[in-house]
Design brief:
Pfam families: Glyco_transf_9 (PF01075). It comes from Leptospirillum ferriphilum. InterPro entries: Glyco_trans_9, LPS_LOS_Heptosyltrfase. The chain is an alpha/beta fold and 423 residues long. Helix content is 37%, strand content 12%. The protein folds into two domains: 157 residues, Rossmann fold (3-Layer(aba) Sandwich); 225 residues, Glycogen Phosphorylase B (Rossmann fold). It has 18 helices and twelve strands. The strands form two sheets. A six-stranded parallel β-sheet has the order 3-2-1-4-5-6, with helices on both faces. It has a six-stranded parallel β-sheet with strand order 9-8-7-10-11-12, with helices on both faces. Helix 5 runs parallel beside helix 6 and helix 8 packs across helix 13. The protein starts with 22 loop residues before the first helix and ends in a 16-residue tail after the last helix.
Length: 423
């Protein structure tokens, strides 16, 4: 039986079923020493964190063709901390008005004369990446499409099928197999040492005596500005923090976020009663990326939505509780196990909708996240950090075997498209 794909992934006619890499691609790179391998991944430093091993493998396997990453400027602090050896181009190309930044970026890539161009924009800004791929002049251009004749494939010489039922790390494994690289989907990200002075600043911000005597829990109530549906309601975060502080008199809460998220985090901080507020620190906008890494390294637990800091907490080994709704844990998390983590997810019929629908069926009123109650989050946190309660009895803890049964039960939101003003 022929088990090859329905359409050939490699137009050159090479066999797709070997793991030593396509010989034509390797010859092409060997014939262009000094010309870089350009990879485009604009946003999502959670995804970038998971694929840094891919860049290491590119650099080690093709030393004459150094990797260059094209990404958003906000990702540079993370890359300077985690991958200072990686060349980064961080031109600001606005999704709403891309042309002022797009043309300089396109010409700068053209001048590099890349030997290989890899387009990793699978869900968003696909037009920008496809045009950059075509304009780059690279003889080999790899990318992912959902259909063989998808419009953006005009920028590619080699089209890989994008299976939406697998996380990005598995898709990267397809590229690795084609290029003859080890597959990184099960590889734990390499994290550098905490910079000297970062831990001292964290201890000062949190209060050293409390930091030493009780648990410190990092709470990040934010999500990407491009998909606010991933946010658990702020009043739910406030309620969980209140219950934690009342039930555990020696813990400390550290609220985190970017500078742009500081006002939102402050609104949560101000809801906490005055008798507990001295044990809650609002560090949003106060930490560099390396200091956030230090905070997670020193902390006893992490609570947050599906966002970049959750991926950093998992990579750091911090016991973590992740909240999922518009995204599915299977499609986001790397395939390796996380023994110190729990993920809460209620498999409603309309979930996952992010990157599956142009607009959320709920009109932005994220019922999937609201179905995760503060009580269920509290119980999961206490089981994770204090070992209380039976994990099998915790509600909404994600497990593959539960999905078909739980997704069909009554009480799930109706997946009818609604307008925001119809709530």
């Amino acid at each position: 039986m022929d088990l090859r794909p329905v359409f050939p992934l490699f137009p050159t006619g090479t066999d797709s079923c070997f793991d030593d890499g396509d010989p034509a691609i390797r010859r092409s790179l060997e014939q262009r020493p000094g010309h870089p391998i350009v990879v485009v991944k604009f946003s999502g430093w959670g995804t970038l964190l998971g694929i840094l091993a891919f860049f290491r493998q590119l650099k080690a396997s093709f030393p004459d063709n150094p990797p260059v990453l094209v990404t958003n400027p906000e990702n540079r602090p993370m890359l300077e901390h985690l991958a200072p050896w990686l060349d980064v181009i961080d031109k600001n190309v606005s999704p709403r008005n891309p042309f002022p930044g797009f043309l300089p970026l396109a010409f700068s890539l053209r001048r590099l004369r890349p030997a290989l161009f890899i387009d990793l924009q699978i869900f968003t800004r696909k037009t920008h990446s496809a045009l950059l791929s075509r304009f780059s002049g690279s003889p080999v251009r790899l990318g992912f499409v959902s259909r063989k004749k998808e419009w953006r494939s005009f920028g590619m010489t080699h089209r890989f099928f994008h299976n939406r039922h697998f996380p990005p790390s598995i898709a990267i494994g397809q590229l690795c197999r084609f290029l003859g690289l080890p597959r990184p989907e099960d590889t734990k990200p390499f994290l550098p040492e905490i910079p000297e002075g970062s831990e001292a600043k964290i201890r000062l911000l949190l209060g050293q005596p409390l930091f030493r005597t009780g648990k410190t829990i990092v709470v990040n109530p934010n999500a990407s500005g491009q998909s606010g549906e991933r946010r658990w309601p702020p009043e739910f975060f406030t309620e969980v923090i209140r219950m934690l502080l009342e039930r555990h008199g020696d813990i400390r809460i550290a609220l985190t976020g970017t500078h742009g998220e500081r006002a939102f985090v402050r609104s949560i901080h101000e809801r906490i009663s005055l008798r507990h507020r001295d044990r809650v620190s609002n560090l949003a906008g106060c930490l560099t990326f390396s200091e956030l890494h230090a905070l997670l390294h020193l902390s006893d637990g992490y609570l947050g939505n599906d966002s970049g800091p959750l991926h950093l907490a998992l990579a750091t080994g911090t016991p973590s509780l992740g909240l999922f709704g518009p995204t599915h844990p299977d499609l986001i998390l790397p395939s390796r196990p996380f023994p110190k983590a729990l993920f809460l997810y209620e498999p409603h019929y309309c979930s996952p909708c992010l990157h599956q629908s142009d607009t959320p069926p709920c009109g932005g009123d994220n019922l999937c996240m609201q179905s995760l109650t503060p009580a269920s989050v509290l119980h999961a946190l206490e089981h994770l950090l204090w070992g209380t309660g039976d994990k099998q009895r915790l509600r909404q803890v994600w497990a593959r075997e539960d999905l078909p049964h739980r997704a069909a039960r009554t009480g799930t939101p109706l997946a009818l498209y609604r307008q925001r003003d119809e709530r």
